[in-house]
Specification:
With 178 residues, the protein is of the alpha+beta class. Helices cover 21% and strands 26% of the residues. The termini are far apart.
């Protein structure tokens, strides 16, 4: 039996060490690509006005699922703002993950399943490779592409259109929010 890395071990890591904890395994990840950050930014800008900026946070924000799982979703919509000095944002209402080649499998399986099991009401998987948005809940999973509007069942009036989200700007253009 291999020793497992726990939340207690995690708390001894130096500040700024970019990693997550999955089933007792510490997983260090590379910095996100420019495309990944652009999609995060577009999603955040479109989202933040609905619940308000005190309830929308982006990575790295710690979501502790249990003593062997500490994850950092790209964007979280919180039930309520945590204490200002807190690293742990609690179990979010909704999370958004922008899939990357190195994380897509884990985001689709371990993270999405863990979020829903922990009480997150919706998980949005933004997939730049397929240009899709998948909205998951404990009841269903719906994949949206092209002009098909993705709607939240949890956040009133929140929608994203894949076609608009994945529009690649020409050099020198300033992209607008979807």
């Amino acid at each position: 039996m291999q020793p497992q890395f726990t939340l207690s071990d995690w708390n001894r890591l130096p500040e700024g060490f970019r990693a997550q904890l999955f089933d007792g395994c510490l997983v260090r990840e590379p910095s996100p690509t420019y495309e990944h950050q652009t999609l995060e930014g577009r999603t955040y800008r479109h989202l933040v006005s609905l619940p308000g900026e005190t309830r929308v946070v982006f990575a790295p924000s710690d979501v502790i699922l249990d003593r062997f799982n500490l994850v950092q979703p790209n964007i979280c919509v919180l039930h309520a703002p945590p204490a200002l000095d807190s690293h742990d944002v609690g179990i979010p209402l909704v999370v958004f993950e922008v899939l990357s080649p190195s994380t897509r499998k884990r985001d689709r399986t371990v993270k999405a399943t863990g979020f829903l099991a922990a009480g997150v009401e919706e998980v949005w998987l933004v997939d730049p490779a397929r240009e899709t948005i998948e909205v998951r809940s404990t009841r269903e999973s719906i994949v949206h592409r092209g002009p098909d509007v993705a709607r939240s069942e949890v956040l009133e009036d929140f929608t994203l259109v894949p076609q608009a989200l994945f529009t690649r700007p020409e050099a020198g253009d300033t992209p607008s929010a979807p």
